Amino acid sequence: MGYRSQVACCISVDVERKEIPNRTDANGEPKYEFVYDKDKFKQMIGFIKLSKFWELWGNESNEDAIGWRNGKFIMYGADWKWYPDYADVKEFHNMFNQLGQIEGISGYFLRVGEELGDVDEETFGDDPCYDYFHHFTAMDFTAEHYLGKRNTDEEGQITQDADTTQS
Question: pTM to 2 decimals?
Answer without folding.
Answer: 0.74
